[in-house]
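User: Last request for today: this protein with inosine 5'-triphosphate, please.
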Amino acid sequence: MQEIVFATNNSHKLDEIRSIIGARFKVLSLADIGCFDDIPETADTLEGNALQKARYVKEHYGYDCFADDTGLMVDALDGAPGVYSARYAGPGHDSRANRALLLENMLGHTDRRARFVTVIALIKDGAEHTFTGTVEGEILTAPEGEGGFGYDPVFRPQGFDATFASMSPEDKNAISHRGRATARLVAFLKS
Ligand code: ITT
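Assistant: Here's the final one, the structure of the complex with inosine 5'-triphosphate:
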């Protein structure tokens, strides 16, 4: 089976990607290759950050790999938290605080439209490629559901009654930003 490194420190992302492409590729984690670094993520675009993470692993560890960067773009907040989604409520990755700040900033807004965007950057055989996936939806006024991670409890995808956090992992992956970007990655890897 072909091996590929997924450059992420987010175990939820790793689980999602493995359940999407695990049958075809052996997806190695950063721990699997002995990388415990705090990989810099200092670009101001999703694509820039995804490339930065993938290049770091290639340069320092020599593996072909891919990385994703994801943002939640909220129309009423002029696209925030966007590329700063991970640290919206301050340094660190406190999803509960990020969700609370988002709901607070959305108080009084009737336009609840938002979208998740994932950009996956792949470095393979000396070339760089990017794949994007998007899902439209809206921000609820209170969290719903126990599953998922990050902003999932406050995001309801268009055409569904449930938040991502209320869906099974399979149902989320079938329509999600990461699921769509991953489908493009897989199509490329197969071609
Ligand atoms: P890596 O950079 O190590 O991959 P991260 O958690 O920092 O992991 P991102 O910068 O891509 O990942 O994530 C941006 C934020 O968006 C972060 O707060 C995540 O919890 C959240 N997020 C990412 N994917 C999500 C998803 O599918 N559903 C809900 N929230 C998500």
